[in-house]
Structure formats: C-alpha cells, structure tokens
Amino acid sequence: MNSVIARHSILRATTPLRSQSIRRSQLSALSRLLSTLAVLEQRDGKIQGSSLSAITAAQKLGGSVTAFVAGVV
C-alpha cells in the first residue's frame, strides 16, 4: 500500500515537469510558425530594392525574420 502511495506522490510531483516540457515544445513550434523567411536577391554585391521591401513586409508581420541571399556576385 505504501508503494502505491509513494508512486502516486512521485507521479503527481513530476506532472508539472511534464507539462512544462510540453509547453516548451509547443512554444518552440509556435515560434517557428511565427517566423518569416525572406528570400533576397542581390546583383553585383547589392541587395535589390524588391528584397528590401520583402524584409519590411516580414517585419510588419512580427516574429523573427531570417534572410536567404541569392544571386550573382
């Protein structure tokens, strides 16, 4: 009987830890959904104006912005 009570107490004590780890993973997934990838174009080492507009639009959405630069050097 004491082992059942002890096991129940341990499970009850670890439940908040489990829910915190679930919340962390959910927050991580949510932050990925709220992030934006901006694909930027550059020519001769200069970022094109349309790419700057993409960054501005991404910032207006909120969340983090990651840029990928493509183009000819």
From TrEMBL:
SUPFAM superfamilies: Adenine nucleotide alpha hydrolases-like. InterPro entries: Rossmann-like_a/b/a_fold. It comes from the Eukaryota. This is Electron transfer flavoprotein alpha-subunit.
